[in-house]
Amino acid sequence: VAMLADYLGLRADVAGATLLAFGNGAPDFFTQVAAITASDRVDIPLALGESVGSGFCTCSLGLALMVLQAPYGSFAVDPLPFLRDSVTYLIAIFLLARAILDKNLELHESIGLVVLYGVYIIVVLYTNELRSYLPSLAPEA
User: Fold this and answer.
1) How much is the pLDDT for 136?
2) pTM for this predicted structure
3) What are the angstrom distances between the C-alpha of 112 and each of 98, 99, 118, 121, 126?
């Protein structure tokens, strides 16, 4: 992925939020498609549980294991990409929870989640430009 990112001229956070996210998310996506289309009975709980559970596992266990493997039990984090990704994930979970509270996921709610992802990709691409508006979130030197 690093070679592809270098070839495409992508920053590490952009490569992580696009190339790695797609590579990591593709099996989850196809599992959801199979849960919905592969049998006579649509298994929405499986699809939703897989999606939310996978994201939570990656966020909690993945980050914890990174810290455990760090030489001094901690590592520096660039706050802007971390906040960008975390806030977007929280918004997506909130929208999903709000959408299923009435026990009916509707087209406009699905479109809203797709639009959120599109906005997220645009923000990812322009994260460096946002730094001038948020100097307190500059990475440590």
Assistant:
1) 76
2) 0.77
3) 12, 10, 10, 14, 21
Confidence at residue 141, expressed as pLDDT on a 0 to 100 scale: 58
Chain-centroid distance, C-alpha 97: 16
Distance (Å, rounded) from C-alpha 57 to C-alpha 52?
9
Number of Cβ within a 10 Å radius of residue 14: 19
The mean pLDDT of the chain is 83
Provide the CA 26 distance to its chain's centre, in angstroms.
12
The token duo for 29 is 């996506």
Sequence letter at residue 119: V
What span, in angstroms and rounded, lies between the C-alpha atoms of 77 and 63?
11
